[in-house]
Predict the structure.
Amino acid sequence: MRYIEPHAHMVSRTTDDYAAMVASGCQAVCEPAFWAGFDRRSAQGFYDYFAQLTDYEPKRAAKYGLPHFSWLCLNPKESEDVKLADEVLALIPEFLQHPNVLGIGEIGLNKNSRNEMIVLEKHVDLAARHDQLILVHTPHLEDKLKGTKLIVDVLKSDRRIKPGRVIIDHVEEHTVQLVLDAGFWAGITLYPDSKCTPARAIDMVEQYSAERLWLNCACDWGQSDSLAVPKTGREMLKRGHSVAAMDRLLFQNPHRFLSQCPNFVVPT
Ligand SMILES: [Zn+2]
């Protein structure tokens, strides 16, 4: 089995995770900028985090032979302070020059608040001006459907944004069709005991067109499983899917989307 892990917060994981992912067939790992488990109090805190994502973490992954890529933004959970957001957004263009950067993400909404919407629009503008791919986080639980609709509206209203260059992540059964119908890619996030299990993910893959879908584990410092993607691959085989279909979903799909960024160089 070979696979790409397109969404993992490796700064919060140990080297055991790197070793296990490589042993399971991981060919590349991609790390969106995210909340650190606490609110950072200054733009300097984000500067250091961006340096970690673009410099230190790729070197740590390279020790295990794993190519590491990153996405940059101020995440929606820390978007309430618009002044701080402006300072952080001003730092990003400098970091876009790094050879492991794939685009702007994970942007989006958390509580669907007015300030989160303002900061989301600023990120979309930044991505458009710098011709960057976009990775979107959608809110959890009861806020997900409303938040996903708001996000799709923001992206659709900016004529510079091509839906095929945007992935909307953490979709569930009630949001996946909305995202695919609008022309975007959709990410299914696998969690060990809450939200989307491997079985639910494969149900979705069987029900909807898998052409623009990818799977990810979104592992961070909380309860999560860095091997959720290969485990779901095995679940596919158990259900009678072919090795070729598994390879398309776990490797070729993320490879096709991410290769739209010239920095993403991973042999097929
Ligand atoms: Zn994430």
About this structure: The first helix runs from residue 15 to 23. The longest strand covers residues 101-108.
